[in-house]
UniProtKB/TrEMBL annotation:
The keyword Hydrolase belongs to this UniProt entry's keyword annotation: yes
Protein name as it appears in the record: Alpha/beta hydrolase
Any Pfam family matching the protein: Abhydrolase_6
Taxonomic lineage: Bacteria, Bacillati, Actinomycetota, Actinomycetes, Kitasatosporales
UniProt KW keywords: Hydrolase
GO function term, MF aspect, one: carboxylic ester hydrolase activity
UniProt-listed InterPro entries: AB_hydrolase_1, AB_hydrolase_Est10, AB_hydrolase_fold
Domain AB hydrolase-1 span(s) in chain numbering: 31-231
Gene3D superfamilies registered for this protein in UniProt: alpha/beta hydrolase (3.40.50.1820)
PANTHER family: ESTERASE ESTD
Organism name: Streptomyces guryensis
């Protein structure tokens, strides 16, 4: 079962979310932060969150600005906006009486989860799946249009079967983002998960994040998984690992 919710982005428009309600005994609550242009219904977001709910951990997953069911223009977002909206999601969870113990971030969302953890109300632990060590890693996805964006202020970008408008402020914000310091300063337990088969974000990124983080930190190799966790059973497997790892923190 799921509950539909909406809350305001830090830049104004409403964001759409689904809370996958926990089955059986409630062990805790969390937030799933999706990848760059993916959304709350992408395989990783949906399958990981639903499996965690089966394990007793209720999960909010939501669409970022201009994605899926959310309002606004994707191009008005940025890494900073994604981080701040994750904090707003945590505020929503706290206000409904189910504060989020856990942040789970996939791909670019993993970087955002780390960056948001210190400000997110009630978060006790962070897990990343296929996260880049530097948010600017995503620039290779739009490198064909980035010069036009910087010279003209914005430019259309066709990705994932749809057209998005990439804006100069977005590109500049991503280039300014520095995750290294956030990882160094993270005072939450961190689980880094990555597949050696990931051909979108190389597993070397996981090594860099893990080496930079302080204890308690853990690393799990998701061998056999692709970056988007579309292979049968891989998202559920990742969720079960997160569930077991997080148990001592969400029940503290």
């Amino acid at each position: 079962m799921s509950e539909e919710v909406r809350f305001k982005s830090v830049v104004g428009p409403e964001l759409a979310g689904s809370i996958d309600l926990p089955e059986g005994e409630v062990r805790g609550w969390g937030i799933f932060v999706h990848g760059f242009t993916l959304g709350k219904d992408s395989p990783a977001a949906s399958r990981v969150s639903k499996q965690l709910a089966r394990e007793g951990i209720g999960m909010l997953r939501y669409d970022n600005l201009g994605i899926g069911d959310s309002d606004g223009d994707w191009g008005d977002g940025s890494f900073t906006v994604k981080v701040q909206d994750t904090v707003r999601a945590a505020t929503l969870m706290a206000e409904r009486g189910t504060p989020a113990d856990l942040l789970v971030g996939h791909s670019w969302g993993g970087a955002a989860a780390i960056a948001a953890a210190a400000e997110a109300n009630g978060v006790r632990a962070v897990a990343t799946i296929g996260a880049p060590a530097d948010p600017s890693h995503v620039e290779h996805q739009y490198d064909a249009v980035v010069d036009r964006v910087l010279s003209d202020g914005q430019h259309e970008w066709f990705v994932g079967g749809r057209t998005l408008v990439l804006k100069r402020a977005f590109v500049e914000d991503v280039r300014r983002a520095r995750l290294h310091d956030r990882v160094c300063e993270l005072d939450r337990p961190l689980l880094v998960m990555h597949s050696p088969n990931d051909d979108t974000v190389d597993i070397a990124n996981a090594g860099e994040i893990f080496r930079t983080a302080r204890h308690p930190r853990s690393f799990v190799s998701l061998e056999g998984a692709d970056h988007l966790l579309t292979a049968r059973g891989q998202a559920q497997r990742a969720a079960r690992i997160i569930s077991a790892w997080a148990d001592q923190y969400i029940n503290a």
